[in-house]
Amino acid sequence: MSLSDPIADMLTRVRNAIIARHEFVLVPASRTKISIAKVLKEESFIKDYEVLKGNTPQRIIKIHLAYDGKKQSALNGLQRVSKPGLRVYCRKGEIPRVYGGLGVAILSTSQGVMTGQQAWKKGLGGEILCYVW
Questions:
Q1: CA distance 73 to 127
Q2: pTM higher than 0.90, yes or no?
Q3: What angle do CA 19, 25, 26 make, to 5 degrees?
Q4: Which residues lie below 8 Å from residue 121, measured CB to CB, with a gap of 6+?
């Protein structure tokens, strides 16, 4: 089945798994989704992720969600910004701050997927994929 916005599907699956208090969530893999999972792990929003090879040619990302002792998620919100119908781009000086610096903007740049802060330090702009807080 073809999806019109696979990144939004990934974010929705993670959001639903957090609401249901699951330990992990399975997502169909792509290079961009793996890069987003890598950024989420670097920023400590998830515990870990692994790329699994299933019975089909399609790989699967197993994302292990991070919780504290009271089952409070480290990830409070995910918001898709750039959509297939309306792409949102920014220059290096226009990179948004999410919740006054408590959240992270994830950008797709010419040097790969990275946080807004990393892109700002490298002097890059790009497509704003999502906000995470």
A1: 27
A2: yes
A3: 145
A4: none
| CA distance linking residue 94 with residue 116, whole number of Å | 10
Q: Cβ atoms within 10 A of the Cβ of 80, count?
A: 17
- pLDDT, tens digit (0-9, with 9 covering 90-100), for 107-125: 999 999 999 999 999 999 9
Residue 45 C-alpha from the chain's centroid:
9
Q: How many CB atoms lie within 10 A of CB 1?
A: 3
DSSP state for residue 73 in the 8-state scheme? B
Q: Per the structure block, which two tokens stand in for 114?
A: 């990275």
Q: Is 69 left (phi over 0), alpha (psi -120 to 50) or beta?
A: alpha
Helix, strand or coil, per DSSP, at residue 41 = helix
Question: Which pLDDT does position 2 carry in this prediction?
Answer: 58
* Residues, the chain: 133
Instruction: Tell me which residue of 32, 39, 56 sits closest to 104, measured CA to CA.
Output: 39
Distance CA 46, CA 40 (A): 6
Q: What is the pLDDT of residues 27-72, one digit of tens each?
A: 999 999 999 999 999 999 999 999 999 788 899 999 999 998 778 9
